[in-house]
Structures are given as structure tokens and as C-alpha cells.
Amino acid sequence: MAVKVEVRTPEELERAAARVLPAAVRDFVAGGADDEVALAGNLAAFRRRTLHPRVLAGADDPDPAAEVLGARLAAPVLVAPMGMQRLVHADGELATSGAAAELGLGFVLATGSSVPIEEIAGPARWFQLYLLADRTVTADLVRRAVDAGCRAVVLTVDAPVVGNRPRDNRTRTSGGWRNANFDPYPSIDAEHHGYVSTIRPDIGWADLAWLVETAGVPVVVKGVLRPEDAVRAVEHGAAGVVVSNHGGRQLGRAVAPLDVLESVVDAVAGRAAVLLDGGVRRAADVLTAVALGADAVLIGRLALWALAVGAREGVTAVLGGLLADIRRTMTLLGARTLADLPGLVSSPGR
Ligand SMILES: Cc1cc2nc3c(=O)[nH]c(=O)nc-3n(C[C@H](O)[C@H](O)[C@H](O)COP(=O)(O)O)c2cc1C
Fold first, then answer.
1. Alpha carbon 9 to chain centroid distance?
2. Is the pLDDT of residue 349 over 80?
3. pTM tops 0.90, yes or no
4. Does a structural domain hold residue 342?
5. Residue 300 falls within a domain, yes or no?
């Protein structure tokens, strides 16, 4: 590979990806909802926190290993569900999932993936579900995911309708859009992102209870920003929640997940896994979230920029670089394992 992606900062990587992607794909990946306040706020929330390292702590060989819902991970990191990755690079989800598996990280396959569920391998993969109007199709997607080896189903609940994304709207074309999981279902148009129009806008708690009963694997609820919703999810059988505002793509003024993480962790009180995504770009972001109580984080756009610039090798380099940086940062923090992290991050202003 000609491009040395691992030496780039996330900002350089984003710029490099923008140079190689067609405008419509660049804006699909980058865009946030409305005035993009939430998109910027996700990044700003991490920068408001400071790290308070412990010295002389013998953390020269730290171990960031994590276990999340039975998945043993080299670090508390999964690739977030993101649809249509073949728009970003021809290898799409095969590249991102392959890189994650190689590094011992988790991978969440989107309902709207551009590679079929059955073609994704790797030990720590989960399936993201949108609840569709056709319950038979929804149940069949879950069955196929579980049969294919997905160990959890991630129900996305913050997209009853699609957010208004000005950048995306401006350049969007339908050319080349093809969702790979819908071939068996003639009622859904796989060519034009057609499943999106069949996402159920009236999704409710009874649907979560149905999924928990149906799935046969742990169910994680993605898109929770209020502690009482996290508690309700647990009461309806969820094994985990993802504190998320969908990377700022849905509600343009949504609170940053990091700013509500501690309240969700307190409310859940160890009864379920708590994950976070939105604005995670650096090792310090990963460790900040874990220090504040997250079991793991999901990486969104960073993985797609790496995919755009360097295919699977690029994703391996960027996520491998993140892993190395997590170790380095743990040494600098005086944390030998993730259990040493709580207390090392400030509240804003401390
Ligand atoms: C291009 C793109 C497509 C996405 N597609 C989905 C999806 O199909 N389902 C879903 O639950 N989240 C989706 N997301 C949201 C991500 O799972 C994740 O919440 C978000 O990207 C995290 O923020 P970050 O990009 O700042 O890391 C998508 C995000 C992007 C950037």
C-alpha cells in the first residue's frame, strides 16, 4: 500500500479520505444532522475532560483486554455498525470486519450492509438491527445473523425516522447503493436503500421485549441518552445499551454521549453492559470513556476513513495504531489494566 495511514492523525486521515471519495460518499460519511451541533459536540465533550495520571505505577506493560457480553477483546473497542461500506471501498465490510478480527476487536454489521450477513467472519461480531415494518423479514434477519455466528443483536432505537442531513442531502445520488441483506425479500427494494423507508417509526418497548424473546442471543439497545431509558431497556431484558446520538446524524442538537455516560452507568448499576459511541478518535477518548464507566466504545467514521484510504490494510493500520496508542496512554496514565482507569479522568473543570 502506497499510503502510510498509521502515521496520520485522525484529522489528516479524514482529509485524505475526503480527497479519494466521491462527493456523495464523502458527505454521506461525514455529514451530521441539522446544524451539526451534535456532531461537533461529540468531539468537544472529549476535549473538555482532562487526564490525571498516576506516577511510578509500574504500568510499563499494560493490558487493555476487555470482555463484553462474552466477547473477549484485545481492547474495549468495536467497529460501529455503518451501512453501505462498499460505497467507501469495493471491499466494504469484508475489509473492516477482517481488520477488526485480525486485531482482536469487535465488529457490528449493519442491517444495511453491502456485504451479506453470511459472508462476514470473525469471532466477535454482532448484528445491528432496524425494526422493519415486516416482522417476518425482521425475524428472518435476526435468525440469519445468529445462524451466521453473530453473538449479539444491537437494536438501533434513535432512528424512527431518518435525520435531516444537509451535507448528505446536497450531494446524494442513488447510484451504486445496494443493500446486500435483502435479496430474499421481494417486498424490499435492495437497489435504492429501500429498507430505510420500511423502518418502523412507531417502535416501542414491546418491540424490544419481542426481540429479547426472539433473538436467542443478548440484545443491546443502541441510541440511549437518558438514564431512565437505559433502566427501562434493562427491565425489558436488554443485556446492554449503547449511549449514542448516532454520531450526530439524527437529532442535530442531541447531547454528547460522553456527557451523560456517568448518569447512565450509575442508573444501570452493573445490570447490563454500557457502551458508548460518537466522536471516539483517539486512545485518550477510548480510555476516558472506560474511566467514566463504559465497558467498551464503538468506532464509527475513523474506520471508514481508514477504509477509504487504505482498504483492509488501512483499517488494520489505523485500528492497530489505536491499539498501540491505548497501551502507550495506559502506561502514561499509570494504568495496568482497564480496572485501574476509574478516577483518572476529571469532570469538566476539575
Ligand atoms: C456512514 C455511516 C453510516 C451509519 N449507519 C448506521 C447504521 O446503519 N445503523 C446504526 O445503528 N448506526 C449507523 N451509524 C452510526 C454509527 O453506528 C455510530 O453510532 C456513529 O458513527 C459513531 O460516531 P462517530 O462516527 O463519531 O464515531 C452510521 C454512521 C455513519 C458515519
1. 20
2. no
3. yes
4. no
5. yes
